[in-house]
Amino acid sequence: MSAQVVTRFAPSPTGFLHIGGARTALFNWLFARGRGGRFLLRIEDTDRARSTPEATQAILDGLAWLGLDHDGDPVSQFQGAARHAEVALEMLAKGHAYKCFASQDEITAFREEARAAGRSTLYRSPWRDADPATHPDAPHVIRLKAPREGETVIEDQVQGRVTIRNDQLDDMVLLRSDGTPVYMLAVVVDDHDMGVTHVIRGDDHLNNAARQMQIYHAMTWDVPVWAHIPLIHGPDGKKLSKRHGALGVEEYRDMGYPAAGMRNYLARLGWSHGDDEFFTDAQARDWFGLEGIGKSPARLDFKKLENICGQHFAAAADASVLAELDGFLAATGAAPLDGVVRERVAAAMPFLKERAKTFPELLEKAEFAIAARPIVPDEKAAKALTEETRDMLTQLTPHLQNASWNRDELEGVLNGFAEAQGTKFGKLAGPLRAALAGRSATPSVFDMLMVLGRDESVARIANAAGSA
């Protein structure tokens, strides 16, 4: 087996990148990247009726958004059909496979008879040991000549030792009567040819491993390390479905979760490193190991996802949040930030990201920086603009025009003005929020003043003071 770790993610392009598939890809990516290995991508597009270029692109887009880069070009399983058939014919030549001429009607009749007699319905082909001289010139499949005695043992890194009696496994078809390879054969050949050392995938494939091992043994190929991970369940403990909400990665992107938070949350979904909940990509790569994966299904918890995303916003560099905000706006078809608006949002980023958990929340807090004059207050903010408070804003305007535009000076001016009016700054804050942002819930008045600058701030306050 290769000394270098090689993992792979092998989705079927029949729809969006499922959240469960994204976690499988992440686990494979972390395991390879943390060991200086290679992470490969294979598109299992043998189902020609359901595989679409659009679905393939959705998978690539989902992986790109999550930041899961793969090594080399994606491999198309369909394009390897000739190689898969070549291996089946090699197994036939070595006596590890055989031609089966049984019709579908004969197989159905066998199973019905076995069921009626209370016997196993596993099909036992009469052609398994037939003399090739007796073979008719007729359509046939090629079946694996599986061992019927003993056991197949899967030493799984997550599930532990799993033993399956060989008499419970049938002689599976390798090549159909039209010469096309089946999925089970294609997976093994591809994994071998790609040099995959560790197969990390959902535990719904656990039984497949026993059958796939028989192909490895027949070809005298190294068997990869198996790690079958539990599936993701909804908050109610039931298998994840549409009733639980978002299933596709692009839905989480469009809801505005930051990619780093999503990676952190997905890594923590079924894997643990002590009590650590929040960690960086570098820590995840260093810490991730198969021994940390639990055997029980993980449950989606949106509150925990939001909490972790909030921590990632707070910890991220301002420029990286702004760049990802650009991507979010583009992905959701919203207008881009440009010119003075972009400059304001960039200047506001240190306090915008402090309490945001998603990009829509961050944009809500940034509304004061994005809005253009005239600022139209919403219903709640408009209530703060009474005749009395508009008069106060009118009187305040010259004080601001003459102030040095730094935070300490502005705090002194506003607190001094409120005191001269026989009130406290809190009484002034409501009208100022309405004037500067048109909202009653905003960032700090001083933060907004600093971002907007003297001219824009004074113009907004003057507009609000003069409103009827």
Automatic annotation (TrEMBL):
Per the record, the GO terms for biological process are: glutamyl-tRNA aminoacylation
According to its UniProt record, the EC number is 6.1.1.17
The entry's ATP-binding residues are: 242
What does it catalyze?
A: tRNA(Glu) + L-glutamate + ATP = L-glutamyl-tRNA(Glu) + AMP + diphosphate
Coiled-coil intervals: none
**Gene3D superfamilies assigned:** 1.10.10.350, HUPs
Location of this chain's protein in the cell: Cytoplasm
Cellular component, GO annotation: cytosol
Keyword terms? Aminoacyl-tRNA synthetase, ATP-binding, Cytoplasm, Ligase, Nucleotide-binding, Protein biosynthesis
Q: Molecular function terms in GO for this entry? A: ATP binding; glutamate-tRNA ligase activity; tRNA binding; zinc ion binding
User: Mainly resides where?
Assistant: cytoplasm
- Where is motif 'KMSKS' region found? 239-243
What residues does the Aminoacyl-tRNA synthetase class I anticodon-binding domain cover?
Answer: 340-464
* Span of domain Glutamyl/glutaminyl-tRNA synthetase class Ib catalytic: 4-306
Checking Pfam families in the record gives:
Anticodon_2, tRNA-synt_1c
Q: Where is this motif: 'HIGH' region?
A: 11-21
Q: Supply the PANTHER family for this chain.
A: GLUTAMATE--TRNA LIGASE, GLUTAMATE--TRNA LIGASE, MITOCHONDRIAL-RELATED
**NCBIfam families assigned to the protein according to its UniProt record, in alphabetical order:** gltX_bact
SUBUNIT field? Monomer.
Q: State the similarity comment.
A: Belongs to the class-I aminoacyl-tRNA synthetase family. Glutamate--tRNA ligase type 1 subfamily.
According to its UniProt entry, what is the function of this protein?
Answer: Catalyzes the attachment of glutamate to tRNA(Glu) in a two-step reaction: glutamate is first activated by ATP to form Glu-AMP and then transferred to the acceptor end of tRNA(Glu).
Q: What is this protein called?
A: Glutamate--tRNA ligase
